[in-house]
Structure prediction request, 512 residues.
Amino acid sequence: MASVNPATGETLREFACASAAEVQAAVERARAAQADWNALGVRKRVEIVRRFERLLHEKKSEVARLITQEAGKPRAEALLTEVMVVLDAARFCADNAYAFLREEKVGHSNLAMKTKAGRLLREPHGVIGIISPWNYPFSIPSTETLAALVTGNAVVLKPSELTALCGLELASLLYAAGMPRDVFQVIVGDGPTGGALVESAIDKLVFTGSVGTGKRIAQVAAGRLLPVVLELGGKDPMLVLDDADIDIASSGAVWGAFVNAGQACLSVERCYVHRSLYPAFLQACVRKTKQLRVGNGIDTETDVGPVIHERQLRVIETQVEDARARGARVLAGGQRLRNLGANFYAPTVLSDVKHAMQVMREETFGPLLPVMAFDSDEEAVRLANDSDYGLAASVWTRDRGRGERLAERIQAGTVMINDTISCFGISEAPHGGVKASGIGRTHGKFGLEEMVRVKYVDADRMPGMKKVWWYGYGESFARQMEGFVDLQFARSWGERLRGALRAAGVVKRKGL
Ligand code: NAD
Prediction:
């Protein structure tokens, strides 16, 4: 397997895929190391995360350059959407881990349980397997890894076969920060190596990738009830309401559709515009799209880099051909840019699209912006929800209240008002989808929750007393219990009082 620069075709490094036996050995080493790592305590783990943050900050330009070389995105994007996201995630984990892991007292309102002292403990799962994609090859595995490690888990990461170097860079930064080598390990390999990790003795899996792979993994995981987080694909809608600012919304659409050459799970993949704005909005999108500079992301003047590989280019071409054949118009782009290299596709704006077209139903993961008109907010919400996916969505309006009300009706894990995609850069915001876009959350408090098992510990404050609900049943006990239920739940105060009198005998009860 080779890591290849998608802009130039240059092979950056070749690797041998890890075998199933090597994967299993890595998981065993991780398991052996995890108990000590957890016992080290949250303060020491946070120190390592903070050192990692400082080291990454020092090496930010180098890391961004590597990301650009391996995944193709422009340098500014590598810094903003990868390095900065990871720095913020490290800060979030370090700042919040202590409070998050602190045990919580659990109060009881049921009178029968008043002698109980309950508390919640958050314990690490043990060894967490992480399988990640190539499109955000540094930020996705790093944010998930940091949350898993700071909560006391060991991690075995399998980065995408296309971007193994970014995964290895994460390891070298963590090791330099003092992370024990067996607590965090990277195994390189392709699908079968990932499959071996799913079948290994890991305690939980965090998978980010396509719906197809996610479903296959879920089937294997079901066989042994392996808990999984599945961060899958999206077909995110953008709704431009009749009061939106055309200049702002069109700039948002162009960035949202073409950032990372459209290869973002949160990309704008479907754009719906109120009919009154449709012509002017399209015109603005076309003008701005034609100004974009496509090229090698290493050049700081580049806006849009290459597509990752030939397979992805063919998906894009198929969708454009399907749309053209069914009456869509290509207003910008619509072809490969072979003069730039094998993997470049022109940012493309499509109008007159219909909902049955592939480009409105299947994830593109490429630089396409299909735009469709709608007549009412009702229709816009219906179109947005008419999808198998539900990762994120955006609503564009000058009236924030109207946007917020619409947001509540859209089926998605996240809805942004007057922006798109940037929610991924908010470490506090949970990330994840509904419907085919996945199960579970990463990032923020809910992302930390996925990394722990909750244990409830309950101690009786009156250990010298037999509990009234233990054996020794009989007619009088049944009457006392009825009274006890009435005491707590009867509608009127009178009934409650009568219940209390009937229940009173329970106190003297001896039981078995
Ligand atoms: P992919 O599903 O092809 O591969 C993802 C990872 O799974 C890779 O590391 C791959 O080697 C591994 N894999 C492949 N087959 C496997 C198997 N049978 N068992 C275990 N592991 C296996 O996805 P991709 O092309 O790398 O990434 C693009 C997809 O990821 C898009 O659909 C995109 O929307 C999605 N994505 C989702 C999010 C999110 O947060 N929801 C983020 C980024 C990307």
Notes: Residues 131-136, 140, 158, 160-161, 190-191, 194-195, 198, 208-210, 213, 216-217, 231-234, 265, 363, 365, 391, 431, 433, 438 surround nicotinamide-adenine-dinucleotide (CB under 6 Å). The first strand starts at residue 2 and ends at 4.
